[in-house]
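Reminder to self: tokens first, then the designed residues, so the page reads top to bottom the way the pipeline ran.
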């Protein structure tokens, strides 16, 4: 979870920094703080975006981490919230439409790509027998065999042992 949170932070920061360079410059919008009187907007952007992604449950199990559709929805919702805050809270501080659009598209692209690459790395580690969770099976013989088939198919678990329960 921490690794994914750091990766998402890095990808979002990169998306906004590239968007700031490529987009139409706006005098009052600075991602990084220049002085204590002029705070940067990157930390609030990250806090809001990562908070919405976390609230969507996308830092949970493997299935949740790979839910790219809901990840795109969460990032889009975060961008809408950021847009509302920018226009309602500080009307004088306006993010240009080009910067906002570029950051939204790059955030979607970078965060999804980063998560996909992490997933590929995890799958490769599991194929080599690493990064598997140890488990112990308990149950009736038929149930244990069925569970073994399902668990071996996922490649996420290493069966350490088994115990038969009396019928």
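Designed residues (167 positions):
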């Amino acid at each position: 979870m921490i690794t994914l949170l750091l990766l998402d932070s890095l990808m979002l920061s990169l998306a906004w920094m590239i968007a700031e360079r490529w987009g139409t410059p706006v005098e009052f919008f600075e991602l990084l703080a220049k002085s204590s009187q002029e705070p940067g907007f990157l930390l609030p952007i990250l806090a809001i975006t990562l908070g919405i992604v976390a609230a969507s449950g996308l830092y949970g199990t493997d299935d949740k981490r790979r839910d790219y559709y809901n990840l795109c929805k969460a990032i889009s919702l975060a961008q809408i919230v950021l847009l509302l805050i920018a226009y309602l809270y500080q009307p004088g501080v306006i993010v240009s439409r080009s910067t906002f659009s570029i950051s939204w598209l790059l955030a979607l692209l970078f965060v999804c790509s980063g998560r996909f690459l992490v997933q590929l790395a995890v799958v490769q580690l599991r194929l080599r027998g690493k990064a598997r969770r140890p488990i112990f099976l308990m149950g009736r013989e038929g149930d244990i065999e069925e569970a073994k088939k399902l668990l071996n198919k996922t490649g996420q678990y290493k069966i350490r042992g088994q115990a038969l329960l009396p019928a």
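The chain has two domains: 2-127, 133-164.
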